[in-house]
Hints:
Blueprint: E1 12-17, E2 30-36, E3 47-56, E4 66-75, E5 80-84, E6 99-104, E7 111-118, E8 122-129, E9 134-139, E10 144-149, E11 157-169, E12 172-186, H1 192-209
Antiparallel strand pairs: 1-12, 2-11, 3-4, 3-6, 4-5, 7-8, 7-10, 8-9, 11-12
Amino acid sequence: MPSFWDNVPQGKWNIVMDKPTTHPTEAYVSKVSEFNDKLFTEPDVVVTSIELYFRPWLYTDVKTTDVLGGMKLSYDNGYEICHGIKPKSNSTKNEQLIKAYKIRLTRGELIHTIDVAFGWCINRLTFYTSKGRQLGPFGGKGGDVHKYKSPANGQFGHFHCFSGREIMTYEMLALTHLQIGWAHFETSDANEDQMAGSENNITTDQARSNV
């Protein structure tokens, strides 16, 4: 947990889920399973790294776009959550085509905005952090871009988890109906002055961590 949260006034953590992405594939493919990480993670833990695994959309000799096939989220309490496919040492020919990307967040760095490009599946993801970094885009071409933002301003609203579906297409898993969960710290109006002081502490802590 970032040290600046020690200075946050009394309030209530909550996880707010965005609307899921929609895809025409649902009428043509079989759903393998659904996942909802909100049920397995506490709101006050922080994502420290994200691994994304993209696979080709069509397995032919013609070069096509990549779609999201799997992911792995790691939290600051040591908890890890995996969905879909992931690279293996003894992989099949199709699995050897998987492209892996890893995002590492620094101490106190939080994701406040995510761009998701999707059509038949999830094509591309881009992350924006509290330290002004753009991470990505990761993935392939195609899809329409949709921007998802934390429902709270400042450091107290940030990316926390995903929910979605695993489907089977062209003999490999893909992730669809991706839903972004945001951790949101709710405070009363009476605590606004304390909150402003805490935000000043955030800036100080971040400056120290960058030294």
